[in-house]
Amino acid sequence: MQIATRQDDGAFSPRLMMVTMTAAMGGFLFGFDSSIINGTVDAIQQTFSLSPGMLGFTVSFALLGAMVGAWYAGVCAERFGRVRTMLIAASLLAISALGSGLVFLVWDLIFWRFVGGIGVGMASVIAPAYIAEISPANLRGRLGTLQLLAIVIGIFLAILTSAVIANLTGGANATAWLGLAAWRWMFLTELAPALLYGALALMLPESPRYLVEKGRAREAGEILATVVGIDNPRANHRKINEIRDTIEQDHHKSIKDILDARFLFLPIVWVGILLSVFQQFVGINVIFYYSTTLWKSVGFQESDSFLISVIMATTNIVATVIAICLIDHIGRKRLLLIGSAMMCASLTIMALSFSQAVAHAGELSLPYPWGPVALIAANVFIIGFGASWGPVVWVLLAEMFSNRIRAIALGLGAAVQWLANFAVSMTFPMLASVGLEYAYGLYAAFAGLSWLFVYCSVRETNRRQLEDMTESTARFASQQGAFD
Q1: DSSP strands (E only) in 308-380
Q2: Is residue 352 part of a domain?
Q3: Domain boundary residue, one of 172, 188, 204
Q4: Do residues 425 and 283 share a domain?
Q5: Are residues 21 and 95 part of one domain?
Q6: Do residues 199 and 267 share a domain?
Q7: Which end of the chain is less packed: N or C, by CB atoms within 10 Å?
Q8: pLDDT one digit per residue (tens) for the chain, 484 residues
Q9: Structural domain contains residue 259
């Protein structure tokens, strides 16, 4: 990152980089804790004798906790501060790690995963919010990408950790250290990053916006000078006044606002909702939650299945870097269209490949060349998603709404994403029990529909002012008292 000279708006500094990297650990925990389940799925099913439906419920129930955590993260951040909200999230994740690793019954596991899900949801919201509030405007975009990179790195390290533990112990269901099964240690590994996140969060400065809101303008000025880089007294004072004006104009949103008919009938709101739904209904999280089980089910050895999962997580990191490089050059809409086409084609090939599976002694396998074809198609799918729908949907949701409704529209979009993620993750084991070709054929159909939806309904937001998005939101914003 190029180091800028100090300006009235702020500038890059080593301390700013350390602060944003620490905050981005919330994204790392988001990726790590939501994906560590990957290596444990088969062992959990065997240990607790779960049906496909119950397995899906067990794996995905944490996502409902994440929906709750994302919803209430803003409430906690306003009441207790951004840093204390990070500490709450870290505490919930640490407690969940211990509880999940030491469970006795499947219902214990469901409960502790739900607790961890709340922490994941809070971390997924508070990290980008804090980074945006602590960063100079001219560096906010680049520093914000640290959160996105942290998520995919967390996914990669979670899958890699599971693979290493399984390799050292002889399998996820094998007895490991202290007499605990290997899958339990996979959950216990969540404890280390959670404690590290909490320890580092204790050293973070509070958000200047929160401090101004609480009447602590002097402290806010010190942070603006030492962290953000606004060390000119006049510029520092002007920035505090700008924050104060923004706070006075801001309206706290509630569930009543979301249920307001004037909000729900806005076409742009439904564009945001459907973007969130399609992002999940293409089945991306099936790859990161069930990939080890998936490849075992069609004849690969457990060690090979873990290796394949690691390769896929690596591919996801590469795809994210591609998205960061392309998003401002070719535009949001075009990138989504390219991603939808890639996903539809690759998912169709995966469905065709799995339809060729043959049974030997009660076990499925993919005859040559369908095994390598399925593997290549799966990685193309990850590239198509990771370079487009993964990051671009979040960018669009942040850009496509007017200032008046952006906060509640973003909150609704995040909640819908977690709910759609839950629906896909819960139903996959049942679909897979009927036939993997049907599951991936369904996801391919949604990918095709996503292309049509983007082509017909999504407007390009690249290089446009946030206040100049759509006529519908502009008309809504002009309605006095809509959210007053």
Answers
A1: 358-360, 363-365
A2: yes
A3: 204
A4: yes
A5: yes
A6: no
A7: C
A8: 444 444 566 677 888 888 989 988 988 998 899 889 888 988 999 999 999 889 889 988 898 998 888 878 877 888 898 999 999 999 999 999 999 999 999 999 999 999 999 999 888 878 877 887 887 766 665 676 677 788 889 988 998 999 899 989 988 889 999 999 999 999 999 999 999 999 999 999 998 888 988 888 899 888 888 888 887 888 888 888 877 776 665 555 555 555 555 666 678 888 888 999 999 999 988 887 777 777 776 667 767 777 888 888 888 889 888 887 887 788 889 999 999 999 999 999 999 998 988 866 556 677 888 888 888 899 899 999 988 998 888 778 766 766 566 556 766 777 788 889 899 988 988 888 888 899 999 999 999 999 999 999 888 766 554 344 444 444 444 443 444 4
A9: yes
Give the C-alpha separation, 300 to 124, whole Å.
Answer: 34
Q: What long-range pairs does 114-117 form, CB within 8 A, spacing at least 24?
A: 114/61, 114/62, 114/64, 114/65, 115/65, 116/33, 116/62, 116/65, 116/92, 116/190, 117/61, 117/62, 117/63, 117/64, 117/65, 117/66, 117/67, 117/68, 117/69
Inter-CA distances, 82 with 19, 53, 123, 437, Å: 13, 38, 10, 45
Give me the domain span that covers residue 164.
1-204
Alpha-carbon 409 to chain mean position: 17
* Token representation of residue 70: 């994302």
Does one domain contain both 16 and 95? yes
CATH number for the domain spanning 460: value is: 1.20.1250.20
**Selection from 307, 89, 46 nearest residue 183 by Cα:** 46
Verify that 184 and 276 share a domain, yes or no.
no
Are residues 178 and 325 located together in one domain of the fold? no
> What is the C-alpha separation between 103 and 88, in angstroms, rounded?
22
**284 Rama class: left (phi>0) / alpha (psi -120 to 50) / beta:** alpha
Residue 343 half-sphere exposure toward CB, CA atoms < 13 A: 33
Asked if residue 220 is part of any domain, the answer here is no
Tell whether 29 is covered by a domain: yes
* Dihedral sign from CA coordinates of 251, 253, 256, 260: positive
What is the tally of structural domains in the chain?
A: 2
Tokens for 375, please give them: 């593997």
Closest CA to 340 of 400, 384, 394: 384
HEC assignment per residue over 141-169: HHHHHHHHHHHHHHHHHHHHHHHHHHHHH
Q: Is the pTM of this model over 0.90?
A: no
Q: Specify whether the CB–CB gap between 219 and 125 falls below 8 A.
A: no
Q: Tell me the torsion sign for CA atoms 344, 392, 462, 257.
A: positive
